[in-house]
Fold this protein.
Amino acid sequence: MKIILKKDVQGLGYKDDVLTVKDGYGRNYLLPQGLAVLATEKAVKMLNEELKQRAHKLAKIKADAEEAAKKYEGVSLVIAAKVSDKKNIYGSVGAAQIAEALNAKGIETDVKKVVLKAVKELGHFTAVVQLHKEVAVEIPFEVIAENAPVEEKEEEAPKAEETPAEEPAEEPETEEEAEVAE
């Protein structure tokens, strides 16, 4: 018996596949459950026409998703979370916080499109925004302590300033000292 699957059937095939199955399986299970229809000449022609139209629509949807993916290029996030004295996060950072941070940057993102396991510690991580089944964007983010971000920035700023400032400052001084000594 030739059938056209209307839905994915595990172990048999995917939606819109034209298959040959045993008569009893098709007649007693697939057809009554609404999982398939008979593959008559008319039904196969209709399926082919529908697939052509759907392919055009799917190509446009994928192109739109690829265009939307360009908005996410170069985006990285910093998420502040409350931490204990032992640097453990109270609760976790999840898809909702990532979507909220992206929306705050002006990139409209649905929470359902963010794929992320709950993060329960400080550090650098990556979230995935699934825009289409074939288009996904990785978003790097860092989880920092909410109650101590000022201290971290103060520590980082002098280190960054001291290292570049000392090296160039010392070299001209030594050259000037060398010229004065001559």
Notes: Residues 39 and 148 are 66 Å apart (CA to CA). The first strand starts at residue 2 and ends at 5. The chain is about 45% helix and 25% strand.
